[in-house]
Specification:
Elements lengths: L14 E4 L2 E4 L2 E5 L2 E4 L3 E5 L4 H14 L4 H9 L2 H4 L4 H16 L18 H8 L5 H21 L7 H4 L15 H8 L4 H13 L3 H4 L11 E4 L8 E4 L2 H12 L12 E2 L4 E2 L8
Antiparallel strand pairs: 1-2, 2-5, 3-4, 6-7, 8-9
C-alpha cells in the first residue's frame, strides 16, 4: 500500500523538524555570508499537531529573555531595516550593532546582555557618553531608538521607548565657508581648460570626486546627464544648461583617440583613461 503523506504544517518562524522533535532555533545575524543562529530549544515531539506547535511556540516566546541583543536581532529582521537600499549602509549598521552589544562596562557586563525592561535614559546616556566621538555617539543613539521602535511595531508587550526619552544635545558641525561667485571665477580663470571643465562639472552636479569619476559615456542622455550619487541616494538626471553642456562637450572632444574606457573623465596629464583620478587605472 502507498504510504500516506504527512499533512502540511504551517510552522512558525525559526522552527524546524529535527529527528523526533520540533526545534526552535532563532536566527540572530549573518556573518561572512552564513546565518548565525542561537540556542536550540525543543518545542515538542515531531508528531505534534499544528495547533500544538503554535501554542508551544507562543509559550516559549513569552518566556524569551528580551535583552538589548534580542532587540537588535528583531530590528535586523524587520521591515524598517529592509527599507535600507544601499548594501554598504546595511553592512555598517550591522557592524554598529555588534559594537553596541559587545561594549563592556566597568564590571565586565556587555551592553547587549542588559534586559530591555532595565534600560533607562540615564543608563543609555552612560553608555553613549563612553563613546569619544560625538558623531558616533549620535549614530548609536539613533540606532537604539530605531531598533526599539521596530520591536514596538513587531513584538507585543514592549515597554515605552526609553531611548526616545533621552534628550542629548549634539553640537552642530560648523559648515564650511560658502564659495562666493567672485572666489569661484577667480580660481576658475587660473586653471587650464581641462580642470575648468572638471570644476564646472563638480560644481553644477554638486558631486564628490569619487562620484564624478564614475560618470560613463552612456550616462550622457538627450535630456541631460544621468548621475548616480553615493551613500544610498537615488540617481538623478541633471538637465542641460549652457555651462554643463560646454563642460561635457570639452571632455568628450578631448578624450584620447585610442581608448575603450567607458568613463567620461580622463587623465589629462598622461593621456590615459582611468576610472578614478588618483586611483587604479
Amino acid at each position: 500500500m502507498p504510504t500516506r503523506k504527512k499533512p502540511h504544517i504551517r510552522r512558525p518562524r525559526d522552527t524546524f523538524p529535527q529527528g523526533r522533535y520540533w526545534m526552535y532555533w532563532p536566527y540572530l545575524r549573518c556573518e561572512d555570508g552564513k546565518p548565525v543562529r542561537g540556542k536550540k530549544t525543543i518545542l515538542g515531539p515531531s508528531d505534534m499537531t499544528e495547533n500544538e506547535l503554535w501554542n508551544a511556540y507562543f509559550k516559549l516566546k513569552k518566556k524569551e529573555i528580551r535583552t538589548v541583543r534580542w532587540m537588535f536581532s528583531v530590528y535586523l529582521e524587520s521591515d524598517l531595516f529592509d527599507r535600507i537600499s544601499h548594501p554598504e549602509d546595511r553592512r555598517k549598521r550591522k557592524n554598529m550593532v555588534v559594537d553596541i552589544c559587545n561594549t563592556e562596562n566597568s564590571r565586565g557586563k556587555r551592553f547587549g546582555d542588559i534586559l530591555v525592561n532595565d534600560l533607562t535614559p540615564p543608563l543609555i546616556k552612560k553608555y553613549l557618553m563612553s563613546i569619544p566621538s560625538e558623531s558616533s555617539r549620535k549614530k548609536r543613539h539613533n540606532l537604539i531608538t530605531m531598533a526599539w521602535n521596530a520591536c514596538i511595531n513587531d513584538e507585543p508587550g514592549m515597554p515605552e521607548n526609553q531611548s526616545q526619552k533621552l534628550k542629548l544635545v549634539y553640537k552642530a558641525r560648523p559648515l564650511g565657508r560658502y564659495v562666493s561667485d567672485e572666489s569661484y571665477w577667480l580660481v576658475y580663470n587660473l586653471l587650464p581648460p581641462y580642470w575648468q571643465a572638471i570644476m564646472e562639472l563638480s560644481y553644477i552636479l554638486r558631486s564628490r570626486v569619487g562620484e564624478l569619476a564614475t560618470i560613463c559615456m552612456d550616462d550622457i542622455l538627450e535630456e541631460g546627464l544621468y548621475y548616480q550619487r553615493s551613500k544610498g541616494s537615488n540617481p538623478e538626471i541633471t538637465l542641460w544648461t549652457d555651462r554643463l553642456r560646454k563642460a561635457v562637450d570639452f571632455l568628450i572632444t578631448h578624450r584620447p583617440r585610442k581608448t575603450d574606457s567607458p568613463f567620461l573623465v580622463f587623465n589629462a596629464t598622461k593621456k590615459k583613461t582611468r576610472a578614478r583620478p588618483g586611483g587604479r587605472r
